[in-house]
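Good morning,

Both structures are done.
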Amino acid sequence: MTVELGRIGIWRRRDQLTPRLAKEVEALGYGAIWIGGSPPADLFLAEELLDATSRLAVATGIVNMWSAPATEVAASHHRVAATHPGRFLLGVGIGHPEATQEYRSPYDTIVDYLDVLDAEGVPVEDRALAALGPKVLALAAERTAGAHPYLTTPEHTRYAREILGDGPLLAPEQKVVLDTDPVAARALGRPAVDQPYLHLRNYTSNLKRLGWTDADIADGGSDALIDALALHGDPATVAAGVTAHLDAGADHVCIQLLTAPGADPLPGLRALAEALELG
């Protein structure tokens, strides 16, 4: 792998990212920004964030294979990589079946997409694959730099590392809420987990694989499930939960800080950076 992500990055929807925020995140010591919300094939936002910073890595989490043609993504990758060598990781993935009317095997679609990226000269080490289950995790190890699991726990990270083996990148996303009041924290965490993820087969199947039950998934998610998928507490408590992924075999963890709508994320990101000793 040629892109240095550091131990900790942030994951944020593309409509919540600006060059100014990228500068602040870099100054706090985070290693990478992951662009969520299915960024389009042009990758213009990735380029803007890289232009605004000097060492921060930028990754897509993820470019959706159903909506972003591989040939266009490859051309955009070459443009971005030429301007910012070693700082851009192309994260791609199938998304979820409910989001498309295409009627074909998701696995075959992933393979075909990666075949096009190969043909268009996108290096294996410059791309990562969204992966949860064993088959796609194994494919991530074989055809990309590694895996970017979303909506997972340290238990999944341990499981994923066993499948990936030593070497491939493992970069899970972890939602966090900086609030010591469980009721208030769950009021932020539950909507972010429930809609849409607890209604999508690939995520619910993965949770069941980890031992969560139908009762945990129903009605917005049990308190235990929400607390696992959207860690809450003071900065030290949340930092320990994030570090648990590293202890379980992750190379990098991308934190998705959940805040009230319109709230400035920087105070929370600053507190977490201090607790994680990123400076």
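Second structure follows.
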Amino acid sequence: MAFTASDVKALRERTGCGMMDCKKALSQTDGDMDKAIEILREKGLAAAAKKATRIAAEGLVYALVDDAKKVGVMIEVNAETDFVAKNSDFVAMVDSFAKTAIEENPADVDALLKCKAAGSDMTVEEVLRDKILVIGENMKVRRFARLEGELCTYIHGGGRIGVMVKFDVDSAVAAKDEFKSFAKDIAMQIAAVAPQYLNKEDVPADVVEKEKEILTAQAMNEGKPANIAEKMVMGRIGKFYKEVCLVEQPFVKDGDITVGKYVANTAKELGSEIKLVSFVRFEKGEGLEKREDNFADEVASMMK
């Protein structure tokens, strides 16, 4: 019995399994849908797919740098519970995925999932699916960032917040303890204050215009005449830059200077030019819907 592309699609919709898995199952059963579902269930694939509907907003933000290659990766892998995120097997899996991203340089998460996982004969997707079946929780590789150059990473709160910063600096200077201490200060600043941009030039023009509109409306609502409102907006937009731009922010360890000034001071002390090139900040589960468990309801449903 032959099968069509629409049969593969129908099996995928019924089981939630991957296209290739569905195709293989239908090939093995000569297109028999029910037997194909049985095969997928026997392999545990359908069980993993069932778990894929559950919310995974816990997990781990993890960073890894290959000093020899001067390549770093920060990755977020989500699970359903904080307990699983602390599991050594889960952490080892995330480490393997980070190494894979360093070695293979995939374009995005979909490409990473298709890569052979570091230290394994399976793809990242297969390793993940295997772990879902063993641990019994939904898990997802949510995102990763890969940077090349002189890097510093910082992980806060056991994988709750991760930061990776790229610097333009002489490699001999980058190897000094003084620079490493400075770089960590910058990474911790990003973790604590969560800037959205590196500097003023990085803020998109439409974002600035929108902010000016809001600030103008605020000033007018305060009863200020148009010419005064305009001056107030220019002052307040400066405050906006100090909030969202890293180099404009007051330095957390010394509020009398900006981060930009701290960079300049350190460059002078070390006798070398230092430039902040870019940064990435991940906060675990940000923007994801969290699962709200009601213990009383859970117990009641179990008793039923």
